[in-house]
Design a protein that fits this description.
Helix content: 40-55%
Largest sheet: 6 strands, mixed
Number of strands: 20
Structural class: alpha/beta
Shape: elongated
Radius of gyration: 35 Å
Strand content: 5-15%
Distance between the termini: 83 Å
Strand order of the largest sheet: 2-3-1-4-5-6
Number of helices: 23
């Protein structure tokens, strides 16, 4: 389907060429010698039109006083039927010298300016033309220069309003010109597909090539047919198509199936010589393309309801399954990881690889620098959390069908989860604070299995990492953001509203770093005391070796006791953080209130029951 609900066709031409007679015969099926100088707008119901669109036919007058109205009609047109009389040579000459340039001017002077709209030339009064005008070859020779100069001219239809010859065909071709535009798809003068069409077909071919072997097998061809046209092809039909391709394009078929050359040729012959533009457009639209052969905004990112304050967005299960299959299809060597080149190949159906090299630092990779499946999915989870509209676009670029499945799901924000005493999300986000030199970067790298000494792949000053943590209850994805400019976070209510965890790092051998961490804690308590916060004492191995650990712990313990906080978790390169326990504590922080309330509620019910029983007993005794 084109997505259009209406088509507006405007009929133009010199006086006495038969414009009004054509429109009148279209409505009444009868020719009248005397007609009004212009008929009112005619509306054809959808059940009589291509693709069930409403069609409006607008007749026009050549009277000077109505010129302004004619220009307005042209600027609102989806297609123009430009009529000349075959028995009046001057009306044909004015097609090229006057009317087509004038139509362009009117459209360019619209507010905003409009690109050219399709034009169908109408050769009327073929019932009275002389024998010299009867040759179809001669007609083609006359029209060819016009179509070369004015690419918006789609075709020329000969008709006779008086004899009711081809009148209905005029508006059929006009509808086709709007619903299945030629201009952006095919260059008739060069007899070849236009670059935009070739680019779109390359993308469609790659999406249909599920096993990534650069050919469409019989199974893949049948899936393509079913997706576009809703019916299967028999084995014999597929083989017949392949034979037809091979007869004209030797490289169009190989032992694996139909190649990209064959796929392009197949669509070429749909259009020329068969004139089946509707077949090509059915394919384009099924894969999300609009009339300009660009992916439609509603295809890339379908509208989503308004999110409540603080809400977050996560990948849905359908998207995770899609990405898992996509990863495996590009993992050609089956080593469970994608190289940088394989990631580039994966994004070949998109405008480009949007990840640069950031993902190599942010997610789990192999020692060779290839991203694992866990790292790949985790990075998509982080991307969706940070910019879900862009994720939806790229999922569509990669072949995810938004109309068939859900890509993302909205979840409650932290504040509502706290009120409900139940964590509704599976993607959690935390900030890592600490003075320079306390080991924030090493802390984050350890979360994704990287050594502190590894050089970064990107030049970003703030490292963000993401990984998957499997708990007995569920799988969670934790995003940790290194904070170097603390004011950017502390003074951003929106960022803190979506925060589930704050990690405060300090070097136990440097008291000033602990003072700094305490200051951050005190500031957060004033406005966001419900964020789960944990202290980490870094470089524990160094404080042990220099004998300062006991003194440091003693100095720290008073602060933690005063604020009823657990002691800081001691970590070092040899004793990295237990991120599983950390995520488990974050999840428990949402549910602890539930347990307390459940206890109080249970106790209240028990007391009420005992009290009721006691009063009943007293009443019975009395």
């Amino acid at each position: 389907m084109s997505g259009r609900s209406e088509v507006r066709i405007v009929v133009l031409g010199d006086p006495q060429v038969g414009k009004t007679s054509i429109v009148t015969v279209m409505i009444t099926e009868r020719f009248q010698e005397q007609v009004a100088h212009c008929t009112p707008v005619v509306t054809i119901p959808p059940d009589s039109s291509l693709e069930n669109v409403i069609t409006h036919i607008v007749d026009t007058s050549t009277r000077p006083q109505e010129q302004h109205q004619v220009e307005q009609h042209v600027r609102e047109a989806d297609c123009i039927c430009l009529v000349y009389a075959v028995d009046k040579q001057e009306t044909f000459a004015r097609i090229q010298s006057h009317w087509l340039p004038e139509i362009r001017r009117m459209l360019q002077e619209a507010d905003p300016p409009r690109p050219p709209v399709p034009v169908v030339l109408i050769a009327n009064k073929i019932d009275v033309r002389g024998p010299t005008m009867a040759d179809a070859v001669l007609l083609e020779r006359l029209i060819a220069p016009i179509m070369t100069e004015f690419k918006e001219v789609e075709t020329c239809v000969e008709c006779s309003a008086k004899k009711n010859i081809n009148v209905h065909e005029i508006f059929f071709f006009a509808q086709k010109a709007v619903l299945y535009p030629t201009g952006v798809v095919f260059d008739s003068s060069a007899n070849k597909l236009k670059p935009k069409a070739v680019e779109a077909l390359h993308r469609i071919f790659r999406l249909c090539d599920k096993d990534k072997d650069d050919a469409l097998s019989n199974k893949e061809l049948n899936s393509f047919q079913t997706r576009c046209f809703g019916q299967d092809l028999s084995h014999e039909e597929i083989e017949s198509v392949k034979t037809r391709i091979q007869e004209e394009q030797a490289e169009g078929v190989n032992e694996k199936g139909v190649t990209i050359a064959g796929f392009l040729y197949l669509h070429h012959i749909f259009i020329q010589p068969h004139g089946k533009l509707e077949i090509a457009w059915t394919v384009f639209r099924r894969f999300g393309y609009g009339d300009e052969l660009t992916l439609r905004p509603d295809f890339l990112c379908p509208p989503m309801g308004e999110l409540e304050p603080g809400a977050t967005v996560e990948l849905d299960t359908d998207a995770v399954n899609f990405l898992t299959d996509l990863f495996r299809s590009f993992d050609k060597d089956r080593d469970g990881a994608l190289t940088s080149q394989e990631v580039d190949n994966l994004f070949a159906t998109a405008p480009g690889n949007p990840w640069d090299k950031d993902y190599l630092d942010a997610a789990q990779t192999t020692e060779a620098g290839s991203i694992t499946l866990q790292g790949f999915l985790s990075y998509w989870h982080m991307w969706a959390r940070l910019d879900w509209p862009e994720v939806m676009k790229y999922l569509a670029y990669l072949g995810f069908e938004h109309d068939e499945a859900n890509a993302v799901v909205a979840t409650r924000g932290r504040e509502r989860d706290k009120k409900k005493s139940k964590l509704s999300r599976h993607v959690l986000e935390g900030f890592v604070f600490g003075k320079p030199g306390v080991g924030k970067t090493s802390f984050l790298k350890s979360f994704v299995g990287k050594k502190a000494s590894e050089a970064p792949s990107s030049t970003s000053s703030n490292l963000s990492v993401v990984n998957t943590v499997q708990l007995p209850s569920a799988e969670y994805h934790l995003i940790l953001n290194e904070v170097n400019n603390e004011r950017d976070v502390l003074e951003s209510p929106e960022r803190l509203r979506q925060c589930d965890l704050v990690c405060l790092l300090y070097d136990r051998s440097e008291p000033s770093t602990f003072d700094h961490a305490k200051k951050i804690y005190e500031e957060l308590r004033k406005t966001h005391r419900d964020i789960y916060t944990v202290f980490f004492a870094t470089k524990a191995d160094l404080t042990k070796s220099n004998g300062k650990e006991g003194d440091s712990k003693l100095a720290d313990s008073k602060f933690f006791a005063d604020h009823k906080l657990p002691m800081a978790k001691s970590i070092s390169l040899a004793n990295p953080p237990n991120f599983g326990a950390l995520v488990s504590d974050v999840v428990a922080s949402y549910e602890s209130k539930t347990s307390a309330w459940s206890f109080l509620l249970g106790a209240g019910v028990l007391l009420a029951f005992v009290g009721g029983a006691y009063f009943a007993y007293r009443k019975f005794r009395n």
